[in-house]
Design brief:
alpha+beta; two-stranded antiparallel sheet; disordered C terminus; transcription; nucleus; DNA-binding; DNA binding
């Protein structure tokens, strides 16, 4: 193979600029050509552009589910007879704070002599009666702590009835009566327009059913004199006078917890039944 001869080429900037300007000034064969376009018939192999806004594909927000309206019980107006008749008759201060507990419909068990108790609405006791009591009073009424759920247990076989002989001569056997669980309670008095104030009763919550009741000796005598009957709608109001001491001297005496049971009139009962 022959040797290639290397030649030295010098770069001239002025000549390079002249060649570039000559190429730009030279007209192109297709420069300025008019391209016909028929709008009625688009060109072959050309699809029209369907531009769709991006917000058309954006996910629409899901409508929020309407919340169920909260069941709010309207607190009735404080009856005028409370401060005009009830508080003065009980020897209590006229400016005493009175709290609405709840409304309920009187049932047959509230008037039954075998039951011998008046049941209070659980929601009103927890929301309105508990806040006005002291920790000691709550403990006495078994309302200080919420009852724990009881674990399930297997049902035991019933025990055989224990028979106790009265006398050897008679030879008769009777069933021995079992005593129920002894419940304590917070001293309370029930008040009614017709019956007045009851004697000292007990307010307590059963651990088994979590029901809050008022019971005690003399309850049925109070119920027989009351103005309400079965199926009547009653409003329950609570008030208690606290002791006031000044310079070691008792100025205002402590009172029992009072529960005023007021029977609604016929119009209020009819509205309650329609609701």
């Amino acid at each position: 193979m022959g040797k290639r001869t290397l030649a030295m080429v010098l770069y001239d900037p002025a000549a390079a600029h002249q060649q570039r300007d000559a190429k730009r000034a030279r007209p192109s064969a297709h420069a300025g050509a008019v391209v016909p376009y028929d709008t009625a018939q688009p060109a072959a192999n050309v699809e029209p552009i369907n531009a769709v806004p991006l917000n058309a594909f954006a996910p629409h927000p899901r409508p929020r589910r309407a919340l169920a309206p909260a069941i709010i019980q309207q607190v009735p107006e404080e009856p005028a007879c409370l401060r005009e008749l009830i508080l003065p008759a009980l020897g209590l201060r006229n400016d005493l704070a009175v709290h609405f507990v709840d409304s309920k419909r009187v049932t047959d068990t509230d008037l039954d002599a075998h039951q011998n108790r008046f049941r209070l609405p659980a929601d009103g006791v927890l929301r309105r009666l508990r806040p006005i009591l002291t920790p000691g009073e709550l403990d006495a009424a078994n309302l200080l702590h919420d009852p724990l759920p009881k674990p399930r247990r297997q049902q035991l076989e019933p025990e055989p009835l224990q028979l106790e002989s009265l006398t050897a001569d008679e030879g008769k056997n009777v069933r021995k009566k079992r005593q129920g669980m002894v419940h304590g309670g917070l001293p309370v008095r029930l008040v009614d327009l017709a019956a007045g104030a009851s004697g000292e009763l007990l307010l307590s919550r059963w651990s088994s059913s979590s029901g809050t009741i008022v019971k005690g000796g003399g309850f049925m005598d109070f119920v027989r004199r009351c103005s309400f009957r079965e199926h009547d709608v009653v409003d329950i109001w609570a008030f208690k006078q606290r002791e006031v001491r000044l310079f070691g001297k008792t100025m205002v005496q402590e009172s029992h917890l009072h529960l005023f049971i007021l029977k609604r009139d016929g119009t209020q009962q009819q509205q309650s039944r329609q609701e």
